[in-house]
C-alpha cells in the first residue's frame, strides 16, 4: 500500500490579490520616505500588522486610513 496523497490544494496568492504591503510598497504607494511612513504609524494611526519581526500594512486598512485622512482634511 502506498502513502495517501494530500489532495488539499494550497491556495496561491497572485500579485494582484496581495493583501499585506511591505513598508517599501507603502512608501511607493504614498510616495513618501521610510521615516515619514514610520512617523505615520507611530503618530497618526497608520494601521500595521506585525508578523514576527516583519511589519506589514493591510491594503484594505490602508485604503480606509487614506479615506479617513481625506475626510479630516475636507472637514
From TrEMBL:
<feature type="domain" description="Helix-turn-helix">
    <location>
        <begin position="20"/>
        <end position="69"/>
    </location>
</feature>
<dbReference type="Pfam" id="PF12728">
    <property type="entry name" value="HTH_17"/>
</dbReference>
<dbReference type="InterPro" id="IPR010093">
    <property type="entry name" value="SinI_DNA-bd"/>
</dbReference>
<protein>
    <recommendedName>
        <fullName>Helix-turn-helix domain-containing protein</fullName>
    </recommendedName>
</protein>
<dbReference type="InterPro" id="IPR041657">
    <property type="entry name" value="HTH_17"/>
</dbReference>
Amino acid at each position: 500500500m502506498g502513502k495517501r496523497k494530500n489532495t488539499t490544494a494550497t491556495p496561491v496568492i497572485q500579485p494582484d490579490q496581495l493583501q499585506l504591503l511591505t513598508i517599501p510598497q507603502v512608501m511607493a504607494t504614498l510616495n513618501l520616505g521610510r521615516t515619514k511612513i514610520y512617523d505615520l504609524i507611530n503618530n497618526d494611526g497608520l494601521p500595521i500588522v506585525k508578523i514576527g519581526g516583519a511589519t506589514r500594512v493591510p491594503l484594505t486598512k490602508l485604503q480606509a486610513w487614506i479615506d479617513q485622512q481625506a475626510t479630516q482634511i475636507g472637514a
